[in-house]
Amino acid sequence: MIANTDNRYGLVARLFHWTIAILVLADIALGLLGKFTPRTGDTVAFLQVLYSTHKTIGVTVLSLAVLRVIWAVSQPRPVPIHPERRFETFAAEAAHWVLYAAIFVLPLSGWVMHSAEVGFAPIWWPFTQNLPFIPKSESLAMTAATVHWISGIVLAVTIAAHISGALKHAVLERDGTLARMWNGREAGNGSATHVKKSAPLLAALVIWAFTIGGALTVFAPAHDVAATSQRSAQQTAGWVVRNGNLSITITQIGAQVTGGFENWQADIVYDPETGTGSVKTVIDTTSLTLGSVTDQAKGPEFFDVTNHAQAVFEGDILRIDEAKHTATGTLTLVGQTFPVTLDFDLELTNGTATVSGGTLLDRRDFGIGAAYPDESSVGFSVEVLIELTATLIE
Ligand code: HEM
Ligand code: HEM
User: Could you tell me the domains of the chain?
Assistant: First the structure.
């Protein structure tokens, strides 16, 4: 039987339940393993795979959750097996609502965190890494991390109660509660009614209001900053990048190939009065796409993203003339640091800065492509273009 009836879970509901249950339990285990793994040079590659797996499973849970809810609203919900035990029935149904909400809150808070920061572990899904309207912002990433962590605790406690309840029914009472979810056996009297439907839902909403409200207020400052593994140390100051494009163009066998980095974060301090400031840009090199040579470009001969997942440009901004500016500093790429000057135009309108500029790099300065000592296969120059809009935060 594919569909539910009043006293049986159909095949689809059971498949959703157990697939999501396994993925959620796996993700909790991976999240905790990541949290308690020391961050050293030796564990970086392991953590990268761990977090990519964690994030990919989490986004899968979110997709399945959407389908599950669409399915569930089209189905009757099997009635409680012991409707006369009013409190127990209420608690079980409230736990179900908490769990339904959790399979949205956990992945979404994780995804907001991933979008707001320059992560080193991509989501292995073919669609976009970043959620729309989420700026690259350290403080937003911290907030999302706190929501993720506190919600994770609420989820774990609820699952523990949920599993204990299921085991109590299966082992002590030997009624059909677990069998009804496990193999679709019928149990319960179809004419029984649910407890007042809105009461457990309301209880779950109150629990989530306290969880998210608490994460945004009382728990926010207490979150262990050191444990926020992937985040770079610096704070976003002054300007927040709203959207932008960081592209590179290389020459391969005489033909130009253009690609770009999807994941990067720029922390900009700029005083329009004096035309001076500073910029620090952290680029997630694993987010590079470069046409058909993406894999080669990320490989050990070139960007070597497994060993050097981040590139960093740090420089001082100086106004040359009206819109014309330079950022003079250093670029660290594949572990090599070299002086670089970026020329750009900066236009300010109504508190929004529009920046567009670039620079020309020589791959030999960073020892990139040493196995290609001439330009016959890969040119020496790499053109970097950056375009962004940023707004001032007070
Ligand atoms: C079913 C979904 C998910 C569950 C149950 C889950 C659970 C957890 C847990 C228990 C932790 C360890 C505690 C902590 O550091 O907060 C964690 C960490 C983390 N999760 Fe998730 N997660 C889920 C989905 C996601 C998704 C979809 C993403 C990103 C796209 C994500 C990104 C992260 C990151 C980046 C961390 C490390 C947090 C830090 O360093 O502060 N998670 N998750
Ligand atoms: C391995 C551990 C688990 C066991 C033994 C288990 C067992 C059960 C059982 C027996 C039911 C049916 C309850 C009833 O008929 O009143 C149920 C329902 C449910 N479980 Fe689990 N579960 C487990 C893990 C999870 C996890 C990890 C989640 C979280 C996402 C979850 C979410 C739910 C939800 C939302 C329902 C209500 C389904 C509905 O009525 O629409 N379960 N579970």
Answer: 11-227 (no CATH), 239-392 (2.40.128.110)
Give the number of whichever ligand sits closest to the CA of residue 141.
1
Query: Can you tell me whether residue 238 is helix, strand or coil?
Result: coil
Please give the Cα distance from 103 to 29 (Å, whole number): 15
Nearest CA to ligand 2 atom 37: 96
The pLDDT of residue 143 is above 70: yes
| Nearest ligand 2 atom to alpha carbon 80 | 16
Ligand 1 atom with the shortest distance to the CA of 35: 15
26 Cβ below 6 A of ligand 2: no
pLDDT digits (tens, 9 = 90+) for 200-215: 999 999 999 999 999 9
Query: How many angstroms separate the alpha carbon of residue 114 from the centre of ligand 2?
Result: 28
| Spatial contact of 134 and 141, defined as CB atoms under 8 Å apart | no
pLDDT tens digits, 102-142: 999 999 999 999 998 865 678 988 877 888 888 878 788 88
**What is the token pair recorded at 103?**
């399979």
